[in-house]
Amino acid sequence: MKIFLVITVARQYEGDIISIRHEKAYKTASQAQEHLNSLKKSFVETINVPNIGPIEFFCERGIQEVDLAEEGL
Questions:
Q1: Reported pTM
Q2: pLDDT tens digits for 6-60?
């Protein structure tokens, strides 16, 4: 079974920090696309990183297709 994840990828403007956040999962690509269309596709966000301080990130959203193992569900 395939599921479709709406994800946010954040990349630090000046540096090596990258973050991937899974926002929501759907059973169909069309449901994921509908949710994605209701969100900003790209934006800038300042995140307070522990022991470092505030860092500015460029964020983009997209859809990732994943095979879901159904054993044990």
A1: 0.79
A2: 999 999 887 788 889 999 999 999 999 999 999 999 999 998 888 988 989 999 9
38 phi and psi angles, rounded to 5 deg: -85, -5
Q: Which domain holds residue 48?
A: 2-67
Q: How far is CA 65 from the centre of its chain?
A: 12
The answer to whether residue 73 sits within a structural domain is no
Would the CA dihedral through 63, 41, 11, 51 be positive or negative?
negative
Backbone angles phi, psi at 52, to 5 degrees: -125, -45
How many structural domains compose the chain? Answer: 1
